[in-house]
Amino acid sequence: MYDTKISFENTEVAYASLSDKELKKAYWLFRMMSIPWLVNIGNSMITLCLKLNLPIQGIIKNMVFSHFCGGESLDESIPLIFRLKKSNIEVLLNYSVEGLEDTSGYRDTYEKTLNAIHFAKENPSVRAMCVKFTGYAHTDIWVKLQAKQELTPAEQQEFLQAKSYIEKLCSEAVDCNVHLYVDAEESWFQDSIDTLVDDMMEKYNKEEAFIFNTYQLYRSDKLEDFKKAHQRALEKGYILGAKIVRGAYVEKENDYYVKLGTKSPINNTKEASDREFDGAVRYAVENVTTISLCCASHNEASNKLYFELLTEKNIPLNHKHVNSSQLLGMSDNITYNLSATGMNTAKYMPFGPVKEVIPYLIRRAQENTSVEGQTSRELLLLEKELKRRGI
């Protein structure tokens, strides 16, 4: 039915939507992020300037923010959403404001997320809204729930309010025909999140997958958890919505368990994480009728495997349970080349006020510096396209 091979080397396809000016800007941004000491100094200076209320938000917006984020508001994100739509690339929205750990902050996050779901209803290329449950109740509550510790009356009230927010968001997503992706968090409270997401999937994923949990395959126990979640879904008669990632908290996780004096759940090697991730890809493809998968990866080998397994089994690349996603501003060679084959693809698009999105942007800069080969690969592809254009 399809070619069973794919290459991610075609930079003409990867950067077709970028003007020469935008391409050069992306190149110099990744050049700067390839220098660890410069990233560290830059992050420290940004943090200090914000504490001193120095007017640097305009500079940040024109440089890093505009590359990795859709806009400060939903309306400001519309031009980029339309640009991606022209390449048949959908959007996973995320209100990327963090650290609002009080009642008004949780309420604000809920209202912004609800508004984004309604926005997605009116903009069909916005496939999903991505949320973190710690946006609706303090981390300590999720930790205590996992440890089966009793909540104080105030904590119980906060948790019930969070559940109410989450229930409403799930219900509204289904009514608006929008998916809700629940992001993974740290292992010491992930189980309490999983329990609630499973409940939401059982309630809302009977006919179609609307609610998605995220499985971090850099954990040695997550492939088995993924399979068990699928078995529960089969037994209870619902479709498993699954986003698979490698993971985002390696150093934080390992440090936490060193202090506890116990073994970290993180795989000892990258190769082990790769095997776990690819095992999840294989399992999902084998069960495509009952697992709706979003393969959220910047790893070319894993995306190639996903594509080849689908084509070898003659599974339509636009099957509603087949999805691939990468972060906005990264791995365009994967997103755009997969989209060109007809596969369902999407970009994870953060939005929010510049000042509040700074923690997300700092993580992106640190990730590009620390993930082996990520920045050098981006630079190589950008250089290739600059040469192809004769710039």
Describe this structure in words.
- This protein is 58% helix and 12% strand.
- Helix 4 packs across helix 15 (354-370).
- An 8-stranded parallel β-barrel has the order 1-2-3-4-5-6-7-8, surrounded by 7 helices.
- It has 391 residues and is an alpha/beta fold.
- The chain has one domain (72-357): TIM Barrel (Alpha-Beta Barrel).
Index terms:
58% helix; TIM Barrel; 16 helices; alpha/beta; 391 residues
What's this entry about, in short?
The protein has 391 residues and is α/β, with parallel strands linked by helices. Helices cover 58% and strands 12% of the residues. Helix 6 links the parallel strand 1 (89-95) and strand 2.
Mean pLDDT: 91
CATH domain topology: TIM Barrel
Considering DSSP H and I runs of 4 or more, what fraction of the residues is helical?
Answer: 55-70%
CATH architecture: Alpha-Beta Barrel
Number of helices: 16
Q: Name the structural class.
A: alpha/beta
Largest sheet: 8 strands, parallel, barrel
Number of strands: 8
Strand content: 5-15%
**Spatial extent as radius of gyration:** 20 Å
Would you list the SSEs in sequence order as H and E? HHHHHEHEHHEHEHEHHEHEHEHH
CATH class: Alpha Beta
Assign an overall shape.
globular
